[in-house]
Amino acid sequence: MQNRLLLLGDEAIAQAALDAGISGAYAYPGTPSTEILEYIQRAPEAAERNIHREWSANEKTAMEEALGMSYAGRRALVSMKHVGLNVAADPFINSAITGANGGLVVVVADDPFMHSSQNEQDSRAYAKFAGIPVLEPADQQEAYDMVAHAFDLSEQMKLPVLFRITTRLAHSRADVVRVPPRAQNPIRIPEDDRQFVLLPANARMHYAELIEKQKELLEHAEQSPYNEFTPGTDRSIGIIATGLTRNYLEENYRDASCPYAVLTIRQYPVPPKLVAQLFDCCDEVLVVEEGYPFVEEMVRGLLPGPKPIHGRLDGWLPRTGELTPGDLACALQIERGKVRAVPGMVRPRPPQLCRGCPHIDSYNFLNEAVKDYDGYRVFSDIGCYTLGALPPHTAIHSCVDMGASVTMAKGAADAGIFPSLAVIGDSTFTHSGITGLLDAVHENSNVVILILDNGIVAMTGMQTSLATGRLEAICTGIGVAADHIRVVTPLKKHHEENIRILREEIEFNGVSVLISRRPCIHVKRKL
Amino acid sequence: MKCDIIIAGVGGQGILSIATVLGRAVIAKGWRLKQAEVHGMSQRGGAVQSHVRISDQPVASDVIPLGGADLVVSMEPMEALRYLPWLSTDGWLMVNKTPVENIAVYPEVEPIYKEIETWPRNMLFDGEAMAAEAGSARALNMVMLGAASIILPLEASVLEAGIQAQFAPKGEQVVETNLAAFRAARALAEKRKSELE
């Protein structure tokens, strides 16, 4: 066993889960969480031990499959990006009511600053909502170490545990020291048959148990080795630093120790006794956290408290976005040298579709086919083709969440928009587009759904698409008329023909599906 | 000892390979490092950068504070300027001259060169030609690593071993090309350094 590895935060979590004896890992690709399952898929020990490591159709199915493995008494890891937890919210919240049997760890990678996302939601709020503990490591080594702790805590408390990271940790590499692997759990079905049967009578009982467990979870957080109080010499400020913000604090005191008392929080619920200890030895409190002012709001409360509280809510730190060491220096009034500004000639360089990308040809024929219709609208979705919003394509009018293209196109058609079109990728369609298409079929809505089938999940780096080879069968199966499922090849030489076919389907009063199929140019490179 | 580097460029230029070779070399030395990368949407032709922090002590922040970088090494001229706020006043700015003009309006390139040359310790050179001479334009990233190597606290032999390991799966020819690219740029950087001193 190689002991010292250079790993991304995501990879450290994956290796730790393998070493903690998981029997299955479940996920749908989503930046910045994708590398977790990818690492497990590549790991030789995962194949040797026959650990489940296939992609799921979406985060909800991933979460439920992981819950099924936990039901069987074995350890399961499920990973997703923050907005994926919205998709998985139903099983996630209810898994707190059923509780876990085998250890169940839900890794959620939040994306402050929205590097690759549509919002900045903070998953700690979800865990509080569900009533389960959160672990939030500060660095790659802690990410590794705390996964084992998460599985132990999950089995001890019989609850799922949310493991929260952010983009910076997910996509930063550092050296990580491993410990010897633990064996997998044997199958052990729940002792109480009622545990996973959430009939109201059972659910009421389980919910009362969950409420009762909160005291114990608080005690765990108070005693956790991951929540540390460090005394200071200067009473003027006390600092609460959660997760990786501790690193930014340390960065500002590289040459001297921090003069202030510091409480680092990496295990939740927020431990009140430790917070009280910090309050006792300072005059004002600064709360530093990545994401929402989650701890800050709790500590501040609704009414004026005993001490001034500073952080994201009063402008000491930026209200939104990802924190930097400089933000902390500013809040703590630490002198920094002057820095050179970015010269005015530097222009933004947004991402764009690759040269030769099939989506470019699809947008070319789409733009041409609709240009003579006044008031046409194109609802799009999450994937590489979202870049069709930017010049030179400027081809789409919406991008909201996985699958929303189909349903928003239907809603707009309901409102009288014509033509109303959806543009969705193959994998996004099987993730969350199918049920929306069923709505459209049921009402014979006047929509055209373009499925851009490049045979892969491209945006996140070439993962298997569950749609491959199944699209026509799916559309036929849910009732789209076979002669209105058209397949075209997005290539220049078919441009005129593709325009004609799309126009025919726009003119058809009902549900049309146009599959524009050509492999991603990176597929061959990957193979 | 600490050495903080920003590697800059455009998605698809092979920045992550530079970071990987560096990481391997640092681990081989038994030192510590943190290396923040850009994955996801920006890799599609957008501005990308990697922060690499090497030390014999534990590294705190994954990102380099403003004004803290010892070196900004850029595969592309305009991208070099984007990271000036991170560069320490006595840091090095090493830049490949070839612009990647994949945006609607790319600025005039001469003023960009001029701006780069106002930086006290700069090295602006045609890395692409150097890579081609070594055997492949795709070796540009190892050219840039070769230039950077004169500032890194790592022996050339350790980095060369990293290059060997990185490209070995692609065959001996690819390894040789990349080593040649590395050595040529290292020699040029040594010369530039003595000119400036």
How would you describe this structure to a colleague?
The complex is a heterodimer of chains A (527) and B (197). By secondary structure, chain A is of the alpha/beta class. Chain A folds into three domains: 4-223, Rossmann fold; 228-331, Rossmann fold, CATH 3.40.50.920; 358-526, Thiamin diphosphate (ThDP)-binding fold, Pyr/PP domains (Rossmann fold, 3-Layer(aba) Sandwich). Chain A contains 20 helices and 19 strands. Chain A has helices at residues 9-19, 35-42, 44-48, 59-71, 82-87, 89-98, 123-130, 140-157, 167-170, 200-223, 245-252, 272-280, 294-300, 325-331, 358-370, 404-415, 426-442, 471-477, 495-507, 522-526; strands spanning 4-8, 22-27, 75-81, 104-110, 134-135, 161-166, 172-177, 228-230, 237-242, 261-265, 267-268, 284-288, 309-310, 377-380, 398-399, 420-425, 447-453, 485-488, 511-517. A six-stranded mixed sheet of chain A has the order 2-3-4-6-5-11, sandwiched between helices. In chain A, helix 19 links the parallel strand 18 (485-488) and strand 19. In chain A, helix 11 crosses helix 14. Chain B has helices at residues 15-29, 77-82, 109-117, 127-134, 140-148, 156-167, 172-196, and strands spanning 2-10, 32-36, 47-55, 69-74, 87-96, 121-125. Chain B has a single domain, classed as 3-Layer(aba) Sandwich (Pyruvate-ferredoxin Oxidoreductase, domain 3). In chain B, helix 4 packs antiparallel against helix 7 and helix 5 (140-148) packs across helix 7 (172-196). The mean pLDDT of chain B is 95. Helices cover 43% and strands 22% of the residues of chain B. With 197 residues, chain B is α/β, with parallel strands linked by helices. In chain B, strand 4 (69-74), helix 2 and strand 5 form a beta-alpha-beta unit. The longest helix of chain B has 25 residues, at 172-196. Chain B contains seven helices and six strands; from the N terminus they run E-H-E-E-E-H-E-H-E-H-H-H-H. Strand 7 (172-177) of chain A pairs antiparallel with strand 2 (32-36) of chain B.
